[in-house]
Amino acid sequence: MKLMLTLLLSIGAMLSAPLSYAQQMTIAAASSLRPTLDRVVAAYKSEYPQHDIVIIYGASGRLTAQILNGAPFDFFMSADMDFPRRLADEGAAATEPQVYAKGRIALWSFNVDASAMTLQDLGAERIGRVAIAQPTVAPYGQRAREAMQAVGVWDDVEDKLVFGENISQVAQMAQSGAADVGIIALSLVRQPELAARGYTVIDAALHQPLEQGYVVTRRGADNAVAATFTQFLSTPAAQAVFRDNGFDVDD
């Protein structure tokens, strides 16, 4: 009898293990999504309370490299479409890249009134350091460079630039005074800790669109949470969270 009970418990444990795994997911997400994605996940969990989601934030390029090197991420939400396409091209994605929202960039400062500023003002002598995300790994940094080049101020500002590895670091640099002005994500500017200061949204026509995409990674191909979360991203509830936090979404 004791042997039979032990056998039944062992079988039960083996049957429940895959189900338990399927209730968990790890998302690698661009720093521009903090804390927006936390709120999207909270809305998701109100419908799927049994699902456990962990979010790892970082620069999209760094996260892409980690996924290609075997990092245990089931889902990737980038700040652009190029990095998800790279994962798909290299066989590291289980789905085709899809756009979930479009980002915007803005001028923000703790030291000066950024609401009265333009990109051309960044070249003025009164402005010292200008913080942007590292363009080689962070799409928001790429778009900041494109916008400055478009208005002809890049050459005047290049020597003033200080770089954050991701857009959250850029916001911290501007907040701390390590930079006089930061070009950061509108989604961060809209958060309470920054929203009290003035800001200027940069014309989207000055840079390539900040279409932000996601893929389910090869590791997450059979993950039930990844499948339901993919569907949730297109719901009115998720889109409302993105919109309220400064992203553009398709209606």
UniProtKB/TrEMBL annotation:
Listed name of the protein: Molybdate ABC transporter substrate-binding protein
Keyword Metal-binding carried by entry: yes
Record key words, sorted: Metal-binding, Molybdenum, Signal
UniProt cross-references to CDD domains, sorted A to Z: PBP2_AvModA (cd13539)
GO molecular function: metal ion binding; molybdate ion binding
Stored InterPro entries: AvModA-like_subst-bd, ModA, ModA/WtpA
GO BP annotation list: molybdate ion transport
